[in-house]
Amino acid sequence: MQRSYRTSLLAAFLLCWPPMGSFAGEDPPRPRAFEIVAMEPTPLRVPTYVATVPGVGLSGAQVSGIATLLTVWSQNAELSKQGAAASRALQEKLDAESVWISTVVVAQEFEKQLSARGYTARVNDGLAPFPTLKNRDYTYFGMPWSRAMRAWVNQPTAVSPARDPSASSGMETLEVGITSYEIFGDSLMLQVNAKLIDTKSGRVVRKARAMNAFDMPSLAPIDQAFSEGGKGFKTAFATTAESLVAKCLDKLELRQVDNVGAARSTVTH
Length: 269
Known about the structure:
By secondary structure, the protein is an alpha/beta fold. It has one domain. Helix content is 39%, strand content 16%. The chain is built from nine helices and five strands; from the N terminus they run H-E-H-H-H-H-E-H-E-E-E-H-H-H. It has a five-stranded mixed β-sheet, with helices on both faces. Helix 5 packs across helix 8 (231-251).
């Protein structure tokens, strides 16, 4: 009788104890479905100073010295005007066959890689504007765009709610954007940013970025890269985006579904 009483107490104790993996404060399970929101694209920056600043070669790294910087600053208006015209002309070549949007291409790459890793993902329709961007003109130094992009990166909440709440039930939002998009000398410089957002609260829970500063694909000769609808440029862009998206997903801890638990234990903070 006494043994039965003790057994009942032990059973009641074990039933009241929370099961392993549900302790307060433990990280919740990783999200399994994502709605991907592409930010509006920044204009492609081009090295217009090559033809206008004396003594400057093809690489932007050669723009140095107070005299050169003063020359560039004094010609800012003209450089901005020429840069805008060149950027528009190159975009028209990319749009020759159909509209080509850099951030949509990146968003589609996120969708592709998330699906390959075992997650559900879909790209939302439309583009999300940078909330603080008022002047969308191309400028040589890119100030309006760079300020707006930094504000977006640092914003702790989503830029806009999910457009289809019923379809987004149980989905996490992934905002993706390009914060560096430039022909640097004769190479492509690209930086991709991603923000993982809890759809219910609208709060950013993780951020990631990846840049190809030390692995820029050559676009030389530029005129050939943008011929045939920009085939060469698009190939270089797609290859670079593939690598940068993979790095962002790893930083967001969105590894292969079967290995999520193992991957979480190996992450260092």
